[in-house]
Amino acid sequence: MTAFVSAPERDAxxxxxxxxxxxxxxxxxxxxxxLAWIVSAPVMMMAMSGLGFWMYSRAIRGGLTTTKxxxxxxxxxxxxxxxxxxxxxxxxxxxxxxxxCRH
Length: 103
Known about the structure:
Blueprint: H1 24-36, H2 42-61, H3 74-100
């Protein structure tokens, strides 16, 4: 878990506050999964975005207010990850339906 902990912030008096959890890598992994959807299964999108959503929601409960992700706001990242999860679920359902409905 230490890979997700950012450097402690300094307050006005120069003392270090508690380090915040920034699960940026799950945002990055989800983006890679979206790009890889062209050649791989949407299940990977669901797995990575689900894991990222879980980690970001834990980080928000832990006090995360900004993130290094391009979206900057953790709640926007949650929306992005949820949308990717739903797109992956739709893609998986479409592929399953295509296989089941072949004649």
